[in-house]
Amino acid sequence: MTMKTEATTDLKSGKSPKTTADYAKYFQPPSLKDAKKRGKEEVKVHYDFAIPEDMKDIGKGKRYYVRTYGCQMNEHDSETIAGILQQMGYSPAEEAEDADVVLFNTCAIRENAEDKVFGELGNMKRVKNNNPNLILGVCGCMSQEESVVNKILKSFPHVDLIFGTHNIHRLPVLLRDAMFSKEMVIEVWSKEGDIIENMPKIREGNIKGWVNIMYGCDKFCTYCIVPYTRGKERSRRPEDVIAEVRELARQGFKEVTLLGQNVNAYGKDFQDIRFGFGDLLDEIRKIDIPRIRFTTSHPRDFDDRLIEVLAKGGNLVEHIHLPVQSGSSEVLKRMARKYTREHYLELVRKIKAAIPNVVFSTDIIVGFPGETDEQFEETLSLVEEVRYDSAYTFIYSPREGTPAAVMEDNVPMEVKKERLYRLNELMAKISLEQNQKLHNQVVEVLVEGESKNNPNVLAGRTRSNKLVHFVGDKSLIGQFAHVRITDVKTWTLHGEIVTKVEV
Ligand code: 5AD
Ligand code: SF4
User: Fold this and answer.
1) Angstrom distance (rounded) from CA 403 to CA 335
2) Under-50 pLDDT residues of the chain
3) CA 187, 188, 190: angle at the middle one, nearest 5?
4) pLDDT digits (tens, 9 = 90+) for 222-248
5) What are the start-end ranges of the H helices in 134-200?
6) Which of 72, 224, 300, 383 to probe ligand 1 with, by most ligand atoms within 8 A of CB?
7) What does pTM read for this prediction?
8) Could you describe the subunit structure of this protein (predicted)?
9) Ligand 2 centroid to 224 CA: how many Å?
10) Domain range enclosing 453
11) Annotated binding-site positions for [4Fe-4S] cluster
């Protein structure tokens, strides 16, 4: 029943509105409650995206700058945004100060991510004062939150444009509105839109590329804002995904990462075919591209078909990011993760049996409301048992509108910090031990570029995604090299080149 809540983009009220309530006559503010609804209607796929004729040259001689926060999904959305802007004639600027259009593609996952955006939006006031013609826009997950839209209206009136995650394809029209309107232009849809297939993308380089396989998330883990900001699960048609990966192979890309909030649920929304993530990977592995990765997996939907396909190896790398979040079944239940510690460990055991050299990484939240010392100890013991090569670890951050935000949180911040510290210490120890196994071994490295700290050193990654530094000729960038590991650190490996390998 929720209709697309489209904003009226130009307010002619005459007085300066202060909150979304003032705007309410004209447009529907984003609503997490509406975003929660999951309709049964079929997702339409559109193949007819085009920049409107009168906007094709609007950016000629002008420059844009996109600042991206958060996950790979956002990074990839920024590539689409860049693609659209370039089709409008804009060219990229090195700095926000040099740009005519600046967009902040934002992340809502934790409070500190949001605070960072607000801080940098504040800094943009000076830039805007120096260049009053600058169009400053905010998009991404934060735009989907009413509280954020309200805060921008109240405290950041130098923002010209707000749009959400579901209407990126509307950017040309919204940008034009923002150029000609005196008011802030806001268009956020609480309900996800259809899939728009043929939007342009500007990828950075031609070594590694991201490919979306699905959008949205229906899992509703109790701490997570993503199902609200990204809408319901919608899978791209297999033929569209396969065509995009083939095209990247043709362009010489060496690695593709398939993206989704919950890739294991791929295809569950198809009404006409039975075609899951395992089936998709089984097709994609036949494409002539040396490395295929995917992120992010949910343990609940990780099925035997997928394990069977991954075990075929080849270009499917033996690295699996498998967020566990907690090692306590009790906490997992309150997080609504829909698996227990035992289920998770059984899944890990099955995967290890099928793919003997598999490497795991994970995400862990400490200090979830009500987490006891014993429950935290269970997380540590699970980490010991799985022996992850790496982990992203977080202190729980309440997100307004999610079920966990109203749970009683009796864990003091000091305790949460101490738990994070202990977990990180343990992870560092295990990472180092895992890396030490590679000492003196020869690994295949996809060379990505120069090391950040030393231009004479090359940096690349193993199939298991470990960072390797070694001295080598710059002509190796974009190629595969065999490197003998001579020095092992917690986060990096150092080595010397053995031979150049053709893949
Ligand atoms: N607080 C802390 N961490 C969170 N994550 C998601 N939501 C929250 C939250 N409210 C973490 C999870 C997820 C990763 C992307 O971010 O671990 O897997
Ligand atoms: Fe958030 Fe859970 Fe969906 Fe991951 S699976 S995006 S943690 S709701």
Assistant:
1) 9
2) 1-18, 24-26
3) 150
4) 999 999 999 999 999 999 999 999 999
5) 146-155, 171-180
6) 224
7) 0.92
8) Monomer.
9) 6
10) 442-501
11) 71, 107, 141, 217, 221, 224
